Amino acid sequence: MASGGYRSISFAPINPVVDMGAMSLENPVVTFVTFTLVCAFVGWITNVLAVKMIFRPYKPWRFAGLAYQGVLPKHQRHFAEELANVITRDFMTTGEMVSHLRADKLIANARPILDRLTERFLDDVRAALPEERRAFLQPAMIDAARVAVLAEIEKELEALLGELRTRADGLVDLNTFVADRFFAIGPKRLEAVIYAVSRNELFAIEYFGGIFGAVLGAVQFFFAAFVDMRWSLVLVGAIVGTVTNWLAIQMLFNPRHPKKFWFITIQGLFPKRQTDIAFKMGEIAAAEFIVPREIFELLADRAMPKTIVETDVEKLEAIVAERMPGVASAVTSLLGDDGMRLLRARLVAGFPALREELCREVADVAASHIDIHKLLHDKVASLSKSTFERLLRGLFSKEEFYLIIYGTLLGALIGLIQLGITVALN
Hints:
The protein is an all-alpha fold. It has 2 domains: 202 residues, no CATH class; 185 residues, no CATH class. Helices cover 76% and strands 3% of the residues. Helix 3 runs antiparallel to helix 7, helix 5 crosses helix 6 and helix 11 packs antiparallel against helix 15. The longest helix has 43 residues. The radius of gyration is 35 Å and the shape is elongated. The N terminus is likely disordered.
């Protein structure tokens, strides 16, 4: 035993890559580089494989009675629900979408729809009029009625929007809508979406794995003077895999704010890229998950009755008589009792087709006033760094845990392979 507690060291020529139990001090630089490169490789490859194992395989692989599937594909429904919870809790609800609608802008853009509705109604009135009375339906009378109807709609639209806002979340549960859309894209598209948002950060996990592995390799070199590393390869591999993955994840989030060390300023990748990530998240959400046109069409579909009966038309007549007595009087005097009965029947029969068209057109007009991309981008970009971190880590907490576990297992496996090679060559 050498003085100072050091173990005896063989000076015989060795293979410095595989014989870690007898480190040669005749070539300390070569041995140091070997330790550093091997651990850098272990740190890098374990992180690469761990990231891939989060997404792959898409479908379960079965071997020896066991099944393995990527973490996200296996838990996609849970992930979709968590994402939907985050969106509706922190960023958007159906009611908030409705709150961004402005009555004056809606009226301006809905004029073509209102004109078509007026023409349809006039067609029904003409059909219900006796031939000899159709000449009384003059353009001046029609224009006056149209102006009165538009003025009444403008006056009531703000109140209607307010009522719709209070009912919107009950009519369309955005949480369920987003979760279903996210789950429906499938694991392959899910992987593409996550890479589109955080490609740089996922690559950084792999990159930092190599760097931290190299640092641990340098530390391992000095420990080799005290401990027979040959039979500790499995443990060392597991430690390198665990520590490199853990450190890489921490580097994604910390430090939250820029910190200067000597001449270098460092900051966690997610906080540093918060604005860019917000832009991409808003873009993807607006294109695939929170599609205003689809949501407003669904909202209109659920807000409007499926069918109407003559008593519903009579209630509408009472409202028109109260608020637009001139229009109501002109129509009833022209049509008479028989004509009014015929008009009601035509309105009831034509309502389903009219309703379907209205749902589409109202959704188009409403969606043109909502820029979901900008709304979500502004909200994510304005989050505090701590809230932004909590949001992301809350979404990926399960995946973060598996990433570290996979690093441990893969590092141990590589260490076992190294040990096997060492034993075989000796």
